Amino acid sequence: MSKVLVIGAGGVSSVAVHKMAQLPEIFSAIVLASRRRFKCDAIAASVKERFGYDVETAEVDADDVDATAALIEQVRPKLVVNLALPYQDLAIMDACLRTGVDYLDTANYEPRDEAKFEYKWQWAYHDRFREAGLMALLGSGFDPGVTSVFATYIRKHLLDRIETLDILDCNGGDHGQHFATNFNPEINIREVTAPARHYEDGRWIETPALSTKQVFDFDQVGEKNMYLMYHEELESLATHLPEIERIRFWMTFGDQYLKHLEVLQNVGMTRIDPVMYEGREIIPLQFLKAVLPEPASLGETTKGKTNIGDIATGTKDGERKTVYVYNVCDHEEAFRETGNQAVSYTTGVPAMIGAALMLTGAWRGEGVFNIEQFDPDPFMEMLNQNGLPWQVRELPEPLPF
Ligand code: NDP
User: Which residues, other chains included, contact 8 with Cβ-Cβ below 8 Å and sequence gap of 6+?
Assistant: First the structure.
């Protein structure tokens, strides 16, 4: 029986808490805290109505280590699940170290003034967590998260050696808006406008953002344009699965999204450095976030499916093989179950699963870990049981590009 403290009350948090409430034998008590309490109260009310489970709520500014540590002391959870924003990661890790509690998140730390998507700051906490006998699990979302677990599953069961790995992230959903992002707009736009980078033969190859395009036919979605991008799991996979010669990440974008993004970029609205406006500094991207639809508000209108997975080429018993492991998630079904669209759903479910595996002791370690450092099997089993079933296909040949 374990109590968790969840921090952040956006779409991902909402899904994770709805999912935790369906496993009361693991999550015996949930306290949900965020910057604005009314968001927590709304999630708690929905969970109560759907599953009859009582979630306690609280307010905290997670940038404030003292305030977060005080809340942890008061709640005394077994685990803190950080579903706020990447900016809060280090402050929440500090609060966990101070209070002696395990930690989990879904996105790596980001300094506010630079889009880096690097693990170095969080990896630097390894010795402190190890010495304290605590565990931190990084990147327990879909990508990073499930895509990294798919890679270790392939390595354990489908191929003896992986030579190339391509992660394909397709959102075939339509929310009916001219321009909206399906998770936090600020983080999403920072990610998409950063230069593309992939890993090949021990080095990183950088190309301009959105400059490499391929067409791929996604199961249950159809043909989509996908673009080479940098994504944070590339760094940890290259570190923890060093045999892989090439790792790439692809994401689909519609022409409409790219057209708007190009204009916003050209006029300077995606900048993350401060500009003076009416006598005070503002960050254009933060202002843009304020006028865009909240991702959580898109659930009601989004139709279609996501399809995210890994294609790996390598050898099995001396024979060359290409395998594809993927999940398809339906926006409308996700909304019916949790009141959130599939992008929040595909992140919130793995956050719940990572938390469950830590609480039950199925995954245990002392220090800071990425998800691919653990046995994929219990995680893969829980994906099937908790709304994100996956499929395995053998492809006749490697990707032609
Ligand atoms: P949202 O913007 O919807 O939610 C973020 C929440 O964090 C909001 O409730 C916000 O509060 C709260 N928050 C922000 N700052 C603070 C603070 N200082 N103290 C306390 N709470 C704070 O984001 P999402 O739910 O879409 O995403 C959540 C996380 O999941 C992000 O880190 C995102 O990068 C990650 N993610 C990971 C994915 C993966 O596959 N690994 C995919 C998608 C997202 P308020 O409501 O007051 O603004």
Answer: 34, 62, 82, 83, 84, 85, 88
